[in-house]
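Slack export, channel: ligand-projects

TW: morning all. Re-posting the request from yesterday since it got buried. We need the structure predicted with the small molecule present, not the apo form. The ligand is adenosine-5'-triphosphate; the SMILES is in the block with the sequence. No rush, but it would help planning for next week.
GE: picking it up
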Amino acid sequence: MEKLILEVTSLCVQFGSFKAVNNVSMKVSAGDKIAILGPNGAGKTSLFNAITGMTLPTQGTVSMGGVAITRASPNRRAELGIARTFQITNLFFGLTVEENLLLAARGLQRRKFSLFSSATLPISEEELVESVLERCHLLTKRHWLVKEISYGEQRQLELAMSLTSSPKVLLLDEPAAGLSPAERVVMSDVIKSLPKDLAIVLIEHDIDLALNLVDRVICMYQGGVLVEGKPDEIRGNKKVQEIYLGKPRNA
Ligand SMILES: Nc1ncnc2c1ncn2[C@@H]1O[C@H](COP(=O)(O)OP(=O)(O)OP(=O)(O)O)[C@@H](O)[C@H]1O
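GE: finished. pasting the full C-alpha cell output, ligand included:
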C-alpha cells in the first residue's frame, strides 16, 4: 500500500446558503493518478480551492502528510508539498520561459529555506530548471519570450512552474482546456511522464483524455461525490452518462 499523503474528510464549501462542495471525502496516496469529473458547477474548482487554501471550507478537514492544514495559508500548503495549476495562464509574458521558471523556483525555494536548519539545497536552481524544461518538452524554447510560444507551450510552462517546488501532490485544473488536438497529445505525454511517485489529481472536461491518464475517477455532481471508481467502471456508468447528457436524475 502506498503512503497516504493528502486526506480530505467530509469537506463542505458553502457560499451563503449554497453548498458548492457537499460532504466530500478523498484519500490521495503517493503515485495516485485521480481525475475529478463532473459537469459545470459541480464543485470541482471549489474543492481544489479548499485543498490549496484559496477558500476556507465551512466544514470538514484537510490534512497533508498527517498535518492538519484545513485553515493553513496557501504558502504553508505549498511548503508541505501541494502544487497547483490554474485554468487561466498565470505567466510573465515579457520574460523568457527560463526566467519564468527561475522566478518560480526562487520564490518557492526561499520559502523552503526557512524549514531547513542548513541552507543547502538538494539540487541547484539551474539543475531544477533544466530538469523541468526537459520533462515538459520545453528545452528548445527556454530562451523564447513567453508571448512568442504557442498557447499549448504556455500551458506546459505552467505545469513546469508547478513542478519547481518538487511537490508531492499536483492539482491540475483543466490542463487540456483550449488546446488543439495535437497540443492535447503533447500535454497527455507530459502528464504521463511525470514522476511515478508524484500524486496527481486532475480536473478535466475532456473525459477520454482524463480517463487515459488516471487509475481512479471521482465524479462530482451538485457539490457531492456521485460515483467513484476505475476508468472502465466510469465509462459505462449510467449515472455519469445521465449527468453529462443533462437528463434530470432522481437522486
Ligand atoms: N465565490 C463564489 N461565490 C458564490 N458562488 C460560487 C463561488 N465560487 C463558486 N461558486 C458556485 O459554486 C458552484 C461550483 O462552482 P465550481 O467552480 O467549483 O464548479 P466546477 O465544477 O469547477 O465548474 P466548472 O467545470 O464550470 O469550472 C457553482 O454554482 C458556482 O457558481
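GE: first-pass observations. Residues 15, 20, 38, 40-46 surround adenosine-5'-triphosphate (CB under 6 Å). The chain has two domains: 1-81+168-251, 89-166.
TW: perfect, thank you
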